[in-house]
C-alpha cells in the first residue's frame, strides 16, 4: 500500500516533494522508504578505474627531479604482467624479440607484422607502464613516408603508446615527420644493433673523440626533431653523462653507465633465461643477472620428464576427475558388447590403419 | 728431401707401397713421416651430425614397450631450447599460446598466421623432439579442403613435423584426408578447449557412461582415420585407461590420469609462471608445479627496479666501456666550443607545441 501511495505521488510530484508528502502521511514507514531511497540514489556503483598510464610528462618531470626511469623489454603477456606488477615505468617491445624469443642471430629478420603481434600481447598485460614499440629493420629507413606508415600501423594495430627507431642525424627528418604526424618517438643512438651487417658485429661506440662527438650530435639532432627520449647503447659512462647533461629530454642507457636518466635491460638477460650452462647464450657484460630462471626451468623440465617416465606423475592428487561407480559399471558393460571388443581380442599389431600399411608395409 | 722422395714415391706407387719403400730407404726419418701421414689420413674431419629427430616409429615402439611418452608445450625459442635440452620427446606448439603468451581469455582468437609464427620460433630451438603444431579454431572445421590447406601451410611455413586438431567422429573424414595428403595428424578428444563457446566453459568430460562411450568412439574413429596418436584431456583415469588399452595408437593424457601412453602439460603452468600471488592465473588442478618461476621473475624485476632507482645499478662492473684519457679530454674541449652548450635555451618545436614557450 505504501508502494502504491509512493507511485501515485511520484507520478504527480517531484521526488523530493513526494518524499515530503509521504513523510507527512506515513511517518514510520516513510522513514524506512526514504532511507532506502537515499541509499539507492546516493551510492552509484562505479566501474573500478584502471591505473593511470605513465606518459611523456611524467618522464620529463622525472628527469628534472632526478628520479631514475626504469625500463625493461617484454615480448609477451606474462612478461608484460610481471613488468606491470613490478611497477616498471616503461616497457619496450623491442626488436630484440628476434634474438631472444624467435631464435634468430640478429634483429634484422623480424617484420613489422611480427612486432605488431608481440606488441598486442604485451599491451594485454600492461595497464600502467608506457609501452614503446620498436620499428624493425627495414620498416622506416626507405623514406619518411614509409616510416610514417609503419609507425601508424604500430600504433593502430599494435596498440602501443610510442615508437622507437634506431639512427641519428640521418634519421632526423623522418623522426620530425612522425612527430608532426602525431606519434611520440623515442630515439636510439650509440650501438644500433639492427645495422649489424653494416657495422660488422656488435661493439661499443664512442670510445674515441670523433665517435663520441657523433653520438652527441645524433642525440641532439633527435631532440631537435622532437623525440621525447633517446636510448644510449654501449657507450662509455663519461660520454653518456655529458649527453644526459646537455640534453633536456631523458636518456635511457644500456651499457652506458649510471649517469643516464634511466636504464633499460633485456628481460631474458636480466632474468637469467637461456642461462643453463649447456646452452649459455652469452649474457652481455653490462647486464646483471637478477635471477637464474633458465636453470630453474631446466630442473623443472627434467623432474617432469623423470616423473612421467617412472609413473610418478600424475599421482592421485593430479588425477582429479572421477566417474561414479554405477556409470563406470555401465561403461564397462557397454564396451564389452561394442564392436571395439573385437580389437581387444586381436593383438594390437594386427590392426593396422592404412597409413601404417602405407608407411611400414603389411606385417603379415 | 724426405718430402720430395715421398711425393715421388706416391706418384708411382699406392700409399702403402710408398710407405714401405720409404721405410726401407730412410728408417729413422721415415718413421716420423709415416706417423705423420697416418695421423693425417686416418682421421678425416666430419661435420657433426645433428641428433636424430623423434619420429612416429619411435612413438609406436614406445607404446609397445610401455615407455611413457613425455610431451610439453612451447611457444618460443627459449622454451624450445629448454625442452630439447631436457630430452623431452614431443613438443607441442599449442593454441594455448593464445591464453598464456598472448593474453586472451580463450584459445579462439589465435590465427593460423600466429601459429605459424610461433612454430617457426620453436623449430629454431628444437633439434631432437618431434614438433607438433596445433591447427587453431576456425582453420579446419569448414571443410576437409580448408583443413588440408591449413595443414599444408603449417607444415610448409611453420616447419613442424605433424599437426594436431580437436574433434572426434565429426572430424574423422577431415583427418583421413589430411593423412592421405601426406601429413601426420595427432587427434584431441575429451575436453576440446577451442569449442569453449559451444561447451559453455571448461569442464571435464566422460564422467558418465554416455560421454565416456562417446570419447572412446571418437578416439577410435581418429585411429581408423589414420591419426598417429590422440590427446585425452580432462577425462576420468579409468576411462583413459580403457581407451589406451583398446587403441593401438599412443594416447597422451592431460588431466587424464597415469594410464595413458604419455603425458602433456602446458609449459607456463608446470614452471609456475604467472604464479605470483598478486596475479595468480589459475593453475589447472591436474597440473603439478615443478618450479616457481613467476615468483623468481617478480623478485628479479623488483630488485632491478630498486637498484636502478637508488643508483646501485649499473655499478662499475656493469659499466664496461671506457674512453682513453686523451680522447676524453679532446671530447671535453670540442663540446665546450660547440653550439650544444646551453641546453635549457633550446626547446624543440614539440616542446613548444606541448608545453608552450
From TrEMBL, chain A:
<dbReference type="GO" id="GO:0005739">
    <property type="term" value="C:mitochondrion"/>
</dbReference>
<dbReference type="InterPro" id="IPR015813">
    <property type="entry name" value="Pyrv/PenolPyrv_kinase-like_dom"/>
</dbReference>
<keyword id="KW-0808">Transferase</keyword>
<dbReference type="GO" id="GO:0003864">
    <property type="term" value="F:3-methyl-2-oxobutanoate hydroxymethyltransferase activity"/>
</dbReference>
<dbReference type="Pfam" id="PF02548">
    <property type="entry name" value="Pantoate_transf"/>
</dbReference>
<comment type="similarity">
    <text>Belongs to the PanB family.</text>
</comment>
<dbReference type="GO" id="GO:0015940">
    <property type="term" value="P:pantothenate biosynthetic process"/>
</dbReference>
<dbReference type="InterPro" id="IPR040442">
    <property type="entry name" value="Pyrv_kinase-like_dom_sf"/>
</dbReference>
<dbReference type="InterPro" id="IPR003700">
    <property type="entry name" value="Pantoate_hydroxy_MeTrfase"/>
</dbReference>
<comment type="pathway">
    <text>Cofactor biosynthesis; (R)-pantothenate biosynthesis; (R)-pantoate from 3-methyl-2-oxobutanoate: step 1/2.</text>
</comment>
<protein>
    <recommendedName>
        <fullName>3-methyl-2-oxobutanoate hydroxymethyltransferase</fullName>
        <ecNumber>2.1.2.11</ecNumber>
    </recommendedName>
</protein>
<dbReference type="GO" id="GO:0000287">
    <property type="term" value="F:magnesium ion binding"/>
</dbReference>
Automatic annotation (TrEMBL), chain B:
<comment type="pathway">
    <text>Cofactor biosynthesis; (R)-pantothenate biosynthesis; (R)-pantoate from 3-methyl-2-oxobutanoate: step 1/2.</text>
</comment>
<dbReference type="GO" id="GO:0000287">
    <property type="term" value="F:magnesium ion binding"/>
</dbReference>
<dbReference type="InterPro" id="IPR040442">
    <property type="entry name" value="Pyrv_kinase-like_dom_sf"/>
</dbReference>
<keyword id="KW-0808">Transferase</keyword>
<comment type="similarity">
    <text>Belongs to the PanB family.</text>
</comment>
<dbReference type="InterPro" id="IPR015813">
    <property type="entry name" value="Pyrv/PenolPyrv_kinase-like_dom"/>
</dbReference>
<dbReference type="GO" id="GO:0005739">
    <property type="term" value="C:mitochondrion"/>
</dbReference>
<dbReference type="GO" id="GO:0015940">
    <property type="term" value="P:pantothenate biosynthetic process"/>
</dbReference>
<dbReference type="GO" id="GO:0003864">
    <property type="term" value="F:3-methyl-2-oxobutanoate hydroxymethyltransferase activity"/>
</dbReference>
<dbReference type="InterPro" id="IPR003700">
    <property type="entry name" value="Pantoate_hydroxy_MeTrfase"/>
</dbReference>
<protein>
    <recommendedName>
        <fullName>3-methyl-2-oxobutanoate hydroxymethyltransferase</fullName>
        <ecNumber>2.1.2.11</ecNumber>
    </recommendedName>
</protein>
<dbReference type="Pfam" id="PF02548">
    <property type="entry name" value="Pantoate_transf"/>
</dbReference>
